[in-house]
Amino acid sequence: MLSALPVAGLENDFSVDSTGFRTTTFNAYNGMKHNQKKEHQWVKAHLCAGVKTNIVAAVAITDSNGGDSPQFGPLVRKTSEGFIIDEVSDDMAYSSRLNLQLVANEGGKAYIPYRKNATGKPRGSSLWSKMYHYFQINRDDFMEHYHKRSNIEATNAVIKRKFGETLKSKNPVAQVNELQAKIVAYNLTVVIHEMYENGIKPEFLHAKSDVCT
Q1: What is the pTM of this model?
Q2: Which of 69, 137, 169, 183 could form a disulfide with 174 if both were Cys (CB 3.0 to 4.6 A apart)?
Q3: HSE (CB half, 13 Å, CA atoms) of 190?
Q4: Could you tell me the CA-to-CA distances from 191 to 19, 84, 87, 170 in Å, in that order?
Q5: In a domain, 136, yes or no
Q6: In this structure, is residue 74 part of a structural domain?
Q7: What are the tens digits of pLDDT across the range 55-104?
Q8: Number of domains the chain contains
Q9: What does the DSSP assignment read for 177-196?
Q10: DSSP per position, 17-84
């Protein structure tokens, strides 16, 4: 996202996650006949966020049924357009040979725990085998990298707390635009915070208006 680029020099480690935003529209339902109640529709935001600044570097928005893992690659690739990626840490929902390679293709290393039934068989991916053995032998070090992903949960929580977890728009296209606006607004708060933290005053906040009154 363009709104994230001012902090590109501060962030190299990322995590991918998704979170739902409730709409004011409802799913179709069968009413009292089948003893079912109306349920709110949800929109799902898939984010790739920095684990240091919590900036949202890339976002994909789907309906509530949008799968997490298919969004991983596009989000990582989009992030790499504006950031240098050293690490991507994620939970087991994203564990796959393809996703490990996608991060490697962008110059980074993925720290994604292996499922209990996973094996180190390469099946065409030497990287999968290499990281599997690293995961087994150096578990503490691996998990230290992995636990950086907890920061994206904080990112999701702050977006909802500051800008609300309900979308007011009725139209699906407008809902996407509204959610994107929430994330851009959140990013601006992160950028301003980081500028002050690094001793850079965001001049646009102090600039005099050119509008005549």
Answers
A1: 0.86
A2: 169
A3: 27
A4: 22, 18, 21, 30
A5: yes
A6: yes
A7: 999 999 999 888 899 999 999 999 999 999 999 999 999 999 999 999 99
A8: 1
A9: HHHHHHHHHHHHHHHHHHHH
A10: EEEEEEEEEE----GGGGT----EEEEEEEEEEESSS--EEEEEEEETT--SHHHHHHHHHHHHTTS-
